[in-house]
Amino acid sequence: MVLGDSYTAGYGLRHAATEGWATRLGLARHWTTYVDGVGNSGLTSGGPCGDSYYLNRIPEVLAHGPRTIVVQGSLNDLETDSAALAAAADQLLEAVADVPEVVVLGPVTLPRVGGAERIDDILHEAADRADRRYIPLLDLRLPMQEDGMHPTPEGHAMLAAAVADRLG
Fold first, then answer.
1. Is residue 161 predicted with pLDDT exceeding 90?
2. Among 88, 91, 61, residue whose Cα is nearest residue 74
3. ∠117-121-127 over CA atoms, to 5°?
4. pTM
5. Which end of the chain has the least Cβ crowding within 10 Å, N or C?
6. Where in this chain does the record put each SGNH hydrolase-type esterase domain (predicted)?
7. Which of these, 109, 98, 101, lies nearest to 140 by C-alpha position?
8. What angle do CA 29, 153, 134 make, to 5 degrees?
């Protein structure tokens, strides 16, 4: 199961179901993969409908009976203060405590957007507190669509390959 925002949803891709990083990761790992991506969502961001926080989507995620959940760190949480973001990360990781493997991904760096390092630190610390694996992605420089915010198909392929490689 991959839980995330517009990156996980494959925003702007012609064939998100096959070109998105989450699907590509599942193929690389030989997983049966369920993708739960909602644009503009995050740990503290509710998305376009206002209620698509990651934590609110956990019951549906758990209904699939996942052995592994990959949680994508989101830059949509940039406006949230550090304490509230840390609390939201802790709540989410507690809600999936019975899942055998939970992997938290850090955000990627976007040249036009600052603050990814703060989110990376907060998510890394939350994963450590929950004794879950953390994969930083700040070093990735992905090709972006014209909006400068969302990866191209090639960017999704690079993201999937990096996550698969770092998972080992």
1. yes
2. 88
3. 140
4. 0.96
5. C
6. 2-157
7. 109
8. 45
